[in-house]
Design goal:
- With 461 residues, the chain is an alpha/beta fold.
- The protein folds into two domains: 277 residues, UDP-N-acetylmuramoyl-L-alanine:D-glutamate ligase; 165 residues, Alpha-Beta Complex (Protein-Tyrosine Phosphatase, Chain A), CATH 3.90.190.
- It contains 18 helices and 17 strands.
- α2 runs parallel beside α10.
Length: 461
């Protein structure tokens, strides 16, 4: 039965691959592909908003979801509504996809694809579905590192891995990088490579790609550069420069940090390559709505302020979010942090690194998950954090009750961030936000599928 299921799945993916590639070619769509380890969905939306200033545009972020997988991308491109994962749902998707391929008029000229690369071979498959006209490499980190460890083990014998010791993480990072870098390496000479100047390993792809290049970053040497001029809990301002011209960007609805600014600069860089004026690019950015659970400002109960970054977590993203929390000088600060998942061999080191940063950026800590208990807690205590101000939970529902009853006094600033797998920290956001009527509009992971997952977690409580 498992072999039959695997064969049917492989056949279905091949069908999606062939039809998607044919559809893109037939409709003459310019495809913009983006990869990285954090910020991809935010960049997808930002890029869509910028391109929409001049072109009819589409994107894989649709129906409140980032459809960035080997099935999600074809469904998004051909307008298939994904709202369940039963056998009946998949049959419906097959017929809707086929119908749209033959009969649906293409509504866009430019299309933005978020390329989710979770394991070796993912990028190859995505690139087999469509020619990419412009590729963006945003960030690099150890997200999904666990999925690349088998590849690491196939390249090195146990004795060789033991000899590598501390360098194993670097080799693993190189494997992740090379998978994502295929996007840039496979661009044609008439395409564009948009590269993060602040990451040398990404910047150096300029030397190997056949495509034209443009860079973005906080360095003044980047083609599109940004300098933060003001960052407070109420407002973020930066100066964006290109070829001697500068424009101010101001954002008040979300918490912005260096990582997020780079993401926005990447979208502006694409706009510039397609002759959209800098001022129009910034206007698009200032008016955009970020995806839920990505540094959203939410009014909480008892006059609290919530930094909702509950969608997912990686090391650098958590560190930057903690920096945002530290901006609150007149409020007590509470960090509610969940495990960072799929880190493999790097799990201990990455959680310890976050602990070192958290130690002097918050007044209270609530941590959730086994990795937080095993690696984060000992390190943050070692850094001198007050043990009486730390609490650990293995279940998000338990944590919420404790926070509501024992932790929140009134007026605090609260950061909520963790990986999505089995934690669902949006539960805590919902429990602490003041206006529950906004839940469906501003929180992540909505819909019956995710509601069922949260209920199952509550039953285990």
């Amino acid at each position: 039965m498992n072999k039959l299921k695997a064969f049917a799945s492989k056949l279905f993916l091949k069908y999606l691959q062939i039809l998607t590639r044919s559809y893109v070619k037939r409709q003459n769509i310019d495809v913009f592909g983006l990869t990285g380890t954090a910020g991809k969905t935010t960049l997808t939306i930002a890029l869509y908003e910028v391109l929409s200033k001049k072109y009819k545009s589409g994107m894989t972020y649709t129906q409140g979801k980032g459809l960035n997988s080997e099935t999600g991308i074809p469904f998004a491109m051909l307008g298939v509504k994904v709202d369940g994962y039963s056998i009946a749902d998949w049959v419906r998707y097959f017929f809707e996809f086929t119908w749209n391929f033959f009969f649906k008029k293409c509504p866009y000229e430019k299309y933005v694809i978020e390329m989710g690369v979770d394991k070796p071979g993912d990028m190859d498959f995505i690139l087999s579905m469509t020619k990419v006209d412009l590729g963006i490499f945003l960030t690099i980190g150890k997200v999904h590192a666990a999925n690349f460890e088998k590849l690491l083990e196939s390249k090195f014998k146990d004795k060789e891995l033991a000899e590598l010791k501390e360098k194993v993480d670097d080799v693993l990072m190189e494997l992740i990088f090379e998978e994502k870098a295929k996007l840039i390496r496979k661009l044609d000479s008439d395409g564009w490579a948009v590269l993060n100047y602040d990451e040398p390993i990404i910047r150096n792809l300029e030397k190997v790609t056949k495509a034209k290049t443009i860079t973005f970053g906080l360095s003044k040497d980047a083609d599109i550069s940004g300098v933060i001029t003001k960052n407070t809990p109420s407002v973020f301002e930066a100066e964006v420069s290109y070829k001697g011209k500068s424009e101010k960007i101001e954002i008040t609805k979300y918490f912005i940090n260096e990582n997020v600014l780079r993401t926005l600069l990447a979208a502006i860089a694409v706009g510039i390559t397609y002759e959209i004026p800098l001022k129009k690019c910034i206007s698009a950015i200032e008016g955009m709505n970020f995806p839920p659970g990505r540094m959203t400002k939410i009014e909480g109960i008892k006059d609290t302020v919530i930094i909702d970054s509950s969608y997912n977590a990686s090391t650098q993203a958590v560190i930057e979010a903690l920096n945002n929390l530290a901006l609150f000088k007149k409020r007590e600060k509470i960090a509610i942090l969940g495990d960072m998942r799929e880190l493999g061999r790097a799990e201990k080191r990455e959680h310890e690194e976050v602990a070192r940063h958290a130690a002097n950026r918050t007044d209270k800590l609530i941590v959730i998950g086994p990795a937080m208990k095993k690696y984060f807690l000992p390190e943050v205590i070692k850094q001198g954090f007050d043990v009486s101000s730390i609490w650990h939970f293995d279940n998000t529902w338990k944590a919420l009750r404790f926070i509501q009853e024992k932790v929140i006094k009134g007026g605090e600033a609260i950061l909520i961030k963790g990986s999505q797998n089995t934690l669902f920290l949006e539960i805590i956001v919902e429990g602490l936000m003041k206006d529950k009527a906004k839940v469906e509009d501003i929180l992540c992971r909505r819909g019956s599928f995710w509601e069922k997952k949260r209920r199952q977690l509550k039953i285990k409580n």
